[in-house]
Amino acid sequence: AQYLVESGGGSVQPGGSLRLSCAASTYNQNTYRMGWFRQVPGNERGGVAAIRIRDGTTNYAASVKGRFTISFDHAKNTLYLEMNNLKVEDTAMYYCAAGDGRFASLWHGDYDSWGQGTQVTVSS
User: Fold this and answer.
1) What backbone torsions phi and psi does residue 122 show, to the nearest 5 degrees?
2) Could you tell me the pLDDT band of residue 3, with boundaries at 50, 70 and 90?
3) Residue 62 to residues 2, 3, 31, 97: CA-CA distances in angstroms?
4) pLDDT at position 25, please?
5) Facing residues of 50 across strands?
6) Which residues contact 123 (CB under 8 A, 6 or more apart)?
7) DSSP secondary structure of 24-67
8) Dihedral-angle region of residue 78 (phi above 0 means left; psi in -120 to 50 means alpha; beta otherwise)
9) What is the pLDDT of residues 17-50, one digit of tens each?
């Protein structure tokens, strides 16, 4: 299992931007995938964006496509989520996740390592 440390959450007005970071302790570049998930109380944790580390293949939830960008810095072992044009409905606890697998999956069951979560609040 990975040790993941997230940062970068906060409060922002609608239309604003935030960047989340997730530092990973180690990973197998050939088999790894990482992702960002979000959850609000009473709802299941849902996939936002995922990336296959080996070649940078990405996958996005329809609700964030065109607004969010996931990326991975190999030199820093750090995953990022750039969030632009934020909406009130983006408000949630955001979690970084990692695991072995061939695809950039948005299903939480495909990941076995999780960060502690960082809160993102979008309100006017």
Assistant:
1) -115, 115
2) confident
3) 28, 29, 25, 19
4) 81
5) 35, 59
6) 11, 13, 14, 88, 91
7) ES---TTTEEEEEEEE-TTS--EEEEEEETTT--EEE-TTTTTT
8) beta
9) 999 999 988 766 655 899 999 999 999 999 999 9
